[in-house]
Design brief:
Aspartate Aminotransferase, domain 1; pyridoxal phosphate binding; CobQ/CobB/MinD/ParA_Nub-bd_dom; 4 domains; transferase; Rossmann fold
């Protein structure tokens, strides 16, 4: 999490001594420094092997200098003796310096440093005690960072302390002193073969989230090299397996901590049962084994394995050489595979009729033609034949069909339910003879220069459209480079491209807001996490409400339907390493001076989406664009359908982003502000609750039944209960000229007179 790169394991027992250096080079590819964090004591390895697979063994194989970190909370001069003993115990291990951790008083620290001066080992830093930096632990050690909402803040605080108290220049010199490693980097493509059709990448559903935090990064890389598409799902919250699943991988984690929540997600458990029963190849290690059992500490699990699981009194920690008990999904009978076990639960029985392994001559686990489940963690980089067999089985498996996911947040619906709330938009509210307060299009004619540009664009229809001139106009409008902008067929195309950009692990949409980004993500097979802005807080965003592990955050500014204009600093606080922030500025043209816009800011991992259809009264011309960092704009462009932006849309984009349009932009924004003030004043005078707006619409709480009652009186307003987080008491009202708004108030007054409860 601190580096934005996956953590990896260098373990001679798991992958073999010969792979250690190649895997180090692979994991550190593109980095300036590789940091190997030791586990247990420096010389503690597999029992009975003279330290095989210890940190010292790894340091020797990789020719890596060692920095000792000594906890001196309860030490004084003995720290020097410990350091000297560590440095001289094995001549093949080079201890290059010492960091003192948990240091107390200055006086005691000076005593410790004095003892180290006698050893000749340099002190590279002294970290004082800091209660803010305590890391919680439980029955299997430290709580993983992915399970802690404060992980990012903890890392920031650690970074500050490290920069203040460690001699980073000296530590970098230690790293540079490591000799060159003359070896070829490990490559998953050399370990496995891609099988099947080149145009089909079968989906492997890989468990993630807080309950499933452990798996080897190379497992995913091997499966990808074998031609699979690995899609992460969260058993805590996802309603079903990813669309098109042909293989399932359930790795390690802490399901015992989340047993009740896992049990409550019955939809996914049912879907998992159905998939395994249908023959979908499934691998389950440790946490996965527990998840497939009938129950875990009494909480019902998937019930795929005829076993129950429960916490036990004794920790199991071993590094066995396991023998495959039978031919199975992963193994050939008699095959020896190294692995490791680390758990405090037990299953009863310990093995099925067909066991997965024999460990110390005892059968353990469960195996069949399409299922392999046990406590044993196997590093597939050390045994790539397992990855190959799994990938082969995945290619041959049927595609699992799942039902569409339900809306992320249940909301109260009126009797006339809509088929898909996320796809409901204001245009369906209008009709012949109705006053239109439902659609957020500027109520006025188009400028003559825009009409002329649209007419002239028809002459360009004889050729395929070229969007480059529109790109240049957008870039000039926002002071950006050509490579930082992309014309799109409205904002809707942009959201579809973003949804397809990568296999998002935890996409977040801040609601209530325009639902198209949410719908596009679901259509692309992602499960969306909803973060709600509450009416009691004025629909303001709390950046701390965004989960730390969110890798995509979508938010509107000003937001549809609330009209809230979030502060620029608030939006900047959403940025994290490895996270893309998408700001929908479809209505920013309506904000005088475009206060709060981020379109001109060159920030990494920030994309701004704009629309031209509303402000310029051209909803039939799908014209929009994206502004962002070069990398993301390039990736979006690579996924865009050729010629998706039509000639009229290109002409409209050029015209509406030109300097000619600037005076009209300002005039329309000022006009909308006056109309909105008139609407809000009327609502306020009637004692109606509404959200103060910076957009060309106002969200008001007219009461249950008001939407239908107004429609009966010839007024169409936009129902708001299709926005996650809102119920049927809310409606969205488009701002219109005062004369038309007075007609709205006349109808509203009549409705309120007949229905006093509104």
């Amino acid at each position: 999490m601190a580096t934005g790169r996956p953590g990896r394991n260098l373990d001679p027992h798991l992958v073999g001594e010969e792979r250690l250096v190649p895997m180090l080079l692979h994991g550190a590819s593109g980095a300036d420094i590789a940091v190997i964090e030791g586990v247990m004591g420096l010389y503690d390895g597999r029992l009975g092997t003279d330290g095989f697979a210890s940190t010292a063994h790894v340091a020797t194989l990789t020719r890596t200098p060692v920095v000792l970190v000594i906890d001196v909370a309860k030490l004084s001069r003995s720290a020097g003796a410990i350091a000297l003993g560590m440095a001289t115990f094995d001549a093949g291990v080079r201890v290059a310096g010492v960091v003192l951790n948990q240091a107390g008083s200055d006086r005691n620290t000076a005593e410790i440093i004095g003892s180290l001066e006698q050893t000749g080992l340099p002190v590279l830093g002294v970290m004082p005690r800091d209660v803010r930096l305590s890391t919680p632990s439980r029955h299997l050690g430290l709580v993983p960072a992915a399970e802690r909402d404060g992980s990012i803040r903890m890392i920031e605080q650690l970074g500050e302390q490290v920069a203040r108290h460690l001699d980073l220049d000296a530590i970098l010199e230690v790293a540079r002193s490591a000799p060159h490693l003359d070896a070829e980097s490990w490559s998953p493509a050399r370990e496995v073969m891609s099988v099947g059709a080149s145009d089909h990448r079968p989906v492997v559903a890989m468990a993630g989230g807080r309950a499933f935090t452990f798996r080897y990064a190379e497992t995913e890389e091997l499966l990808t090299a074998a031609g699979c598409e690995v899609v992460t799902f969260d058993p805590l919250v996802d309603p079903a397996l990813p669309a098109g699943t042909q293989g399932i991988y359930l790795g390690g984690g802490f399901p015992e901590v989340y047993a009740a929540e896992l049990a409550a997600n019955r939809g996914l458990l049912d879907d998992l049962r159905s998939a395994v029963a249908a023959g979908i190849p499934t691998v389950a290690e440790c946490a996965g084994l527990l998840y497939l059992a009938e129950s875990l500490d009494g909480a019902p699990m998937a019930g795929i394995l005829p076993a129950t699981a429960a916490m036990a009194g004794r920790l199991v920690l071993r590094y066995p050489a396991s023998v495959a008990a039978t031919d199975s999904l992963l193994t050939k009978a008699g095959e020896e595979v190294t692995g490791h076990e680390f758990h405090r639960t037990r299953t009863s029985p310990a093995a099925g009729e067909s066991a997965a392994w024999a460990i110390d001559h005892e059968p353990v686990g469960y195996a069949s033609g399409n299922l392999h489940a046990s406590y044993l963690h196997v590093h597939w980089a050390g045994h790539p034949q397992l990855a190959q067999r799994f990938a082969d089985a995945v290619y041959a498996a049927p595609m699992h069909v799942v039902s569409p996911a339900p809306p992320a947040v249940p909301v109260t619906r009126p009797r006339d339910r809509v088929a898909d709330p996320l796809r409901h938009h204001g245009d369906v509210e209008t009709g012949e003879g109705l006053l239109d307060f439902a659609v957020n299009v500027y109520d006025g004619g188009r400028p003559a220069w825009l009409e002329r540009a649209l007419r002239e664009s028809l002459t360009a229809a004889a050729a395929y459209p070229d969007a480059e001139p529109a790109r240049a106009a957008i870039a000039q409008r926002h002071g950006r480079e050509l490579e930082e902008v992309l014309p799109t067929a409205g904002a809707a195309e942009a959201f579809t491209l973003i949804a397809q950009l990568r296999p998002w692990r935890r996409p977040v949409v801040v609601h209530p807001q325009f639902t198209e980004p949410h719908a596009a993500l679901e259509q692309a097979g992602h499960t969306v996490t909803t973060v709600l802005c509450r009416p009691e807080n004025g629909f303001a965003l709390d950046p701390d409400a965004i989960p730390d592990d969110a890798d995509l955050v979508v938010i509107g500014n000003p937001t549809n339907p609330t009209g809230v204009l979030h502060l620029e600093d608030t939006l900047r606080r959403l940025r994290r390493r490895g996270r893309l922030v998408v700001v929908d500025e479809a209505f920013m043209d309506a904000v005088p001076g475009e206060t709060g816009s981020l379109a001109r800011e060159r920030l990494r991992d920030l994309v701004v989406v704009r629309s031209l259809t509303k402000h310029w009264s051209i909803p039939g011309i799908r014209a929009g664009y994206v502004v962002g960092d070069r990398a993301h704009v390039r990736w979006l462009a690579d996924r865009q359908t050729p010629w998706s932006v039509s000639a009229p849309a290109i002409a409209a984009t050029i015209a509406c982003t030109s300097r000619t349009a600037t005076p009209e932009v300002r005039e329309r924004a000022a006009t909308l502000a006056r109309w909105r003030d008139f609407l809000e004043g009327g609502l306020r005078g009637r004692g109606i609750d509404y959200a103060p707006s910076a957009a060309p619409f106002v969200l008001a709480r007219l009461g249950r039944g008001a939407h239908a009652a107004l429609r009966e009186r010839g007024v169409a307003v936009r129902r708001a209960d299709t926005f996650p987080g809102l119920d049927s008491t809310w409606v969205r009202i488009a701002v219109r000229p005062p004369g038309m708004t007075n007609q709205f108030f006349t109808a509203l007054d009549a409705v309120r007179l007949l229905q006093p409860t509104l």
